[in-house]
Amino acid sequence: GAPHPLPPRTRAPRRLSPPSAMPASFTLEVEYAKSARAACKQCKAKIDKDEVRFGLKASAGDEGEEGSRNHVMEAVKWHHFACLPRAKGAAWFKKHFCDAAPEAVQGFAALKEEHRPVVEALFKACRGEGAVPEPPEVGAAVGGDTPAKASKRKKGAETGDEPAAKKVAVLSPEQTAAIAKAKEEFSSKSIVALGALLQANGLPKTGRKDELVERCAECKALGVPPTCPRCEKVKLKFSLASGKFSCPGFFDSEDKAFKRCKGPGDDTPAELKRTPWEGP
């Protein structure tokens, strides 16, 4: 019989490539901590209520079907006053925050007048334009102390129970600058290379890359923390908020369980000596 006619050719629909994501933008905000629940993203220690804290937040946007931009906002990552310069390198702060502090930092105008110059000085230090200042006194940050708080604060000062972190900065400007410099150097290394360096110094090599960079930078600038004198299993962890060492605990291979340790015990930070960093 007669051959059947071929069906007309149909063109396959074009596959549209997904819209390219817009580059991330960052915001920096400052405020007096509303509670003591939030932990510092840098040192992991809690941020005291009413303390001046800084929040970093990234937003990435993309173009929708009608050209409208949809923003995907990250949660705010809070930092202690003294920990902010170590969150990113000076080059990063210069790239993302070109204006002066009053324009670049959200919430700056809401600060008490006497705290603004200190925050401006810290912002300059983050950009590598000066030394890191001491954190501002926060006793009467928001509306002043209540009589009970004032009495407690006065009693603490008389008995010498006032927290040391309120009186003395944990790191010197030279130490902070050394950490920032080391952080920029380690940022170009791979996770495998960072893990090898940490392992060579007896330090944990697990975590995200930014955590490994931070760990390497701190230990290269300040020295490797000593082994816990109580459990003698792991290196001690140093808090930049309090200036104290603590034991992170360890995994007991015999009991197949994680064990907590209350080290370093009665040893003071002066007696706990760091050892030199091994490697580049």
How would the blueprint of this fold be written?
Elements: E1 25-32, E2 52-63, E3 69-73, E4 77-80, H1 84-87, H2 90-96, H3 101-104, E5 105-106, H4 116-126, H5 147-159, H6 164-167, H7 173-186, H8 191-200, H9 209-222, E6 237-238, E7 245-246, E8 250-252, E9 257-259
Parallel strand pairs: 1-5
Antiparallel strand pairs: 1-2, 2-3, 2-4, 6-7, 8-9
Helix pairs in contact: 7-9, 8-9
Structure write-up:
Helix content is 29%, strand content 15%. The chain has nine helices and nine strands. Strands 1, 2, 3, 4 and 5 form a five-stranded mixed sheet that branches. A hairpin with a 6-residue loop joins strand 6 and strand 7 (245-246). The protein is α+β, with helices and mostly antiparallel strands. The chain starts with 24 loop residues before the first strand and ends in a 21-residue tail after the last strand. Residues 17-22, 61-71, 140-151 and 161-167 have low confidence and may be disordered.
Task: Give structural attributes.
280 residues, alpha+beta, two-stranded antiparallel sheet, 9 helices, 15% strand
- Biggest sheet: strands, sense, closure? 5 strands, mixed
Query: Could you name the ranges where pLDDT drops below 50 across 5 or more consecutive residues?
Result: 17-22, 61-71, 140-151, 161-167
Number of strands: 9
End-to-end Cα distance: 84 Å
> What is the 3D form?
extended
Report the structural category: alpha+beta
Strand portion: 5-15%
Topology as a string of helices (H) and strands (E)? EEEEHHHEHHHHHHEEEE
* Tally of helical runs: 9
Q: Helical proportion?
A: 25-40%
- Summed over residues and divided by their number, the pLDDT gives a mean of 77
Radius of gyration: 25 Å
